Structures are given as C-alpha cells and as structure tokens.
Amino acid sequence: MEYKIVTLLLIMILSVSFVINCIDKDGSSQESLQQTYNESRNIMDTVVTIHVVDTNSTHAKMAIDNAFKKMEYVDSSMDYFDNTTELSRLNKDSQILNASNDLTYVINKSIYYQHITDGAFDITVLPLLDLWKSKFSAGGTHQPPTPEELNETLRYVNASNITIRENDIFLQKGMQITLGGIAKGYALDVAIESLRNDGIESGFVDAGGNGLYIGHKPDGTSWKVGLQNPNMTEQVITVVQISDMAIATSGNYERYFSEEAKVSHIADPRTGYPSQNLISATVIAPVGIDSDALSTSVFVLGEKDGLEMIEKLDGVECLIITNDKRIVRSSGFDKYEIYSTGN
Hints:
- The chain has helices at residues 2-32, 57-78, 86-93, 101-116, 126-135, 147-154, 183-197, 288-301, 303-311, and strands spanning 35-43, 46-54, 95-96, 163-165, 168-170, 203-207, 210-214, 223-228, 236-242, 245-251, 278-285, 317-322, 327-329, 337-340.
- By secondary structure, it is of the alpha+beta class.
- Strand 6 (203-207) and strand 7 (210-214) form a beta hairpin.
C-alpha cells in the first residue's frame, strides 16, 4: 500500500511538472511571438505612419512614440512657415549662429546635392516658389512671371553661396531656404535611428509615400511597396520589395500652385520655370535623405540627365514616368520588382 502511495505521488509530481513545463513553454512562445504595431500622426504636412515588429505591445508603443518625437523635432527645426523655427530665423536674419547639428547637417547635404546635380536641386529656390505662388494667388495676375521678374529672382538662387563655419550658417542678403525636398527624408532617417536605438530591428516609417524600411515582416519576407499609377491612383504600376532601403517619389500630378494653372510645384532652380520634364520620378536609396533629395533631382533633370546621374551613384536606382507615359528604369531597378503592369 505504501508503495502504491509513493508511486501515485510520483505520478502526480511528474504530471504537475509536465503541466508547468507546458505552461512555461506556451507562455514563452506567446511572449516571443512577433507581431506588428503601428500608429499614424499628422506631421510635416502629411500623414506619417510608423509600423514596427515587436514581441511586446508596451515596448512597441514606447518605441513608436520616441520615433514620432524625433520627427516632430525635425519639423520644429526645419519648417519655414513657422516663424519660431531655426530655419525661419535663418531666412529672416540671413544667418544663424550655433545652429543645431541636424539643421547644419541637412544644409550641408543640400549643398552636396546641388553640386552633383549641377544646380537641379537647390534649397535656395524659395524666392522662385513664392514668386510663382504670388502670381496665382488672390490678387495676382494669374499669368506666369515675366522673364525680367524671373531673372531678378534667380539672382538669389544658388546654394553654393551659403557659407557654413562649423554650426554657424550665413546666407547672402535676399536668399531664402526651403527644405521641402529633403527634410522629410531626413526625418525618416532619424525616426528609424530612434527605433533601432530602442531595439526595433524590423519596421518602417512612411511619410506621405516616402518610406524607409528595415528588417523583414514577421513571416520573414521583405516589405512590399506599390508605386502609384499617376493616371489611376487606385492602381499601381509596379510593386517592389525592399529591406534596409528608402524609397521616395516626386511628381507633378498631385500638387500645383493653382488648379487653374496646373503648374508643377517643383521649380527648376536653373531656369526659374516649373519643372515639367516628367510625370514622376521614384528613387530607391540606402537612406531617406538620399531618396528624397534625389527623387526631386531626377524629376527636375529629366529622363536623360536624371538617369545618367543615378547610374553614377552606388546603391541607388530609379524609375521614371515620362510625359508620354513611358516607364523607364535605371539598370538595377528591376532587381527590386516583384510585379509590374508597365513596360
């Protein structure tokens, strides 16, 4: 009888141990299960979505919030509409001393892009944009600026005339800067850096169609991005899969100085006239600041010069849609494509 009791106790102990082990394993499995978490906010005049892969909802939300704060900081420093920002003070006073590292870095990078694009990308284009907007605003002539007006304004457009000494930045009198063609890309970079610092290895940040993607989806596959058909916005012309890369598109089919004029919002800093060489230009690059600035550059340069520049840059590819609806790719763009409706 004593033997039976001992045996029964051993069975009970082993059974309890088995159940505990199963519970621990199941709990561990649940805890380590990768899931996706996302949140969207309005920043930089667009909807920004941060999407992360994580095993813990509390940690994921904390990381997302930290990344949003980084983007909000970039916006609070580089928005020229807000007269309290560093950029607005620079435009107003033609100088800013001890500027933030972020603003100094972005302006330095902008000067580099101005150099490699032979002036097609130029952050001092703001006086031109303001001139065109004034013509088609209430009380304006609703006619393009005269050649004399354009020539007068072009005197103030040349990023090579920006002087930077450490963190002190100086503009020539009359110059004005807009970082609309580059700040969004930089904001993607700082947001992803924040996510990585918080231990996030997979996810993406999308800001109005400009995105930076890291790692993989929970199923191990790369992130998929559809490129919009400019004629039928509910359709895509191609789908690309990317990981640890950024993608950005510049085009003239969404924003205009005025609906009546249908004038592109991207002006050519070299001529003063709106850039209408292409319908759109999409660039894939290792970081957001490159994809943003280079998509604008290719759009202004046009098919021949734009492709020629992209082919010289390591790790950068592009897809352009010409005015006659041709789809043209750089030599390595197709390695990202998994589906295409275009030629």
